[in-house]
Each structure stands twice: as C-alpha cells, then as structure tokens.
Structure to design on (170 residues):
C-alpha cells in the first residue's frame, strides 16, 4: 500500500487574501512646494498663480503624487488646494502628505473596492509576506472590512497562521 501525500492546506477551505494584489503599480512622486518659495521662505501668490498657469502638468500623468513642503515655511492652505486642482485631472492620485500617506491612501482606495460579501462565512488568511511594501494601515483596514462577514480571520500563510478572529457560535 502506497502512502500518498495529502495537501492539508489545499483541502482546508481557507481563502488567502493577498494585499499585494491591491498594490498600485503607478509611479509615486513628491511635489515639494519648496521649489515655489521666494527666497526659500515665502510663497508669493502672483508668482505661484503664474507658475500654475505655465507649468507642464503632463509630467504627472498617471502618477501618484504626494504634496509636501520640506522647508519650514508657512504655506497657505489655498496653495495646496490650487495644486490639487492642477494635478487631479492628470495624476492617478493626489494626497497632502509624504509617501507613507500616499501609500496608505492607495491601499485604502483599493480596499474600498473589495466586496466583503465575497468573503461571507469564509475562513480568511490575510497573507503576511509580500514583495511590495504593504503599510500596516492596510492590514488594519482589511481586518475592519472583513471581520463583520468572515467566519474567521487569520494572519500569515495558510501553512502557518496566527488566529485573529473567530465568529462566536450562535
């Protein structure tokens, strides 16, 4: 009698949710308002508005843009708003903040498109290893989204999981 190898993971009924699949592949860039400051200190409205009219915004086409000011200067809120108005028609995504804030936003947007009903009563493993940087905020958000519908949530790999949540028996 021959012993056959049984793949218990494949037969477990676990569904793997890989946040890496939601990774936006568009380029990430920073727009730093310091380049628009007069003498590295102040933003002059007239000069800034002229720059906004004449700048070639096509460079940002399909890119994910984080708007910052790396100089210690007081930037009026309207300046960020005007930048957003110029970037929004061409960029994939625009946020105020650094690249980490941009990454969080990209994952939040992708997770918002996930239909939780696809995971109703499922035993879900949220994959822990990925080839791309997945922010912790994305793990928190997917947990928040799936917990109301999933039978159980785990973290890791199907062969080695950390239990997170199990729906109480009714």
């Amino acid at each position: 009698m021959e012993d056959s190898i049984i793949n218990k993971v494949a037969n477990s009924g676990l569904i793997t949710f890989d946040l890496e699949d939601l990774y936006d592949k568009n380029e990430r860039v920073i727009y730093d308002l310091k380049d628009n400051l007069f003498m590295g200190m102040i933003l002059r409205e007239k000069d800034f508005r002229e720059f906004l009219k004449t700048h070639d915004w096509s460079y940002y086409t399909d890119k994910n843009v984080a708007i910052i000011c790396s100089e210690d200067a007081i930037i009026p809120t309207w300046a960020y708003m005007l930048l957003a108005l110029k970037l929004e028609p061409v960029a994939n995504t625009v946020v105020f903040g650094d690249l980490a804030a941009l990454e969080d936003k990209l994952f939040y947007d992708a997770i918002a498109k996930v239909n939780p009903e696809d995971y109703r009563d499922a035993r879900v493993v949220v994959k822990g290893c990925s080839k791309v940087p997945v922010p912790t905020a994305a793990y928190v958000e997917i947990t928040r989204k799936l917990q109301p519908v999933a039978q159980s949530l785990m973290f890791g790999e199907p062969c080695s999981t950390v239990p997170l949540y199990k729906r109480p028996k009714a």
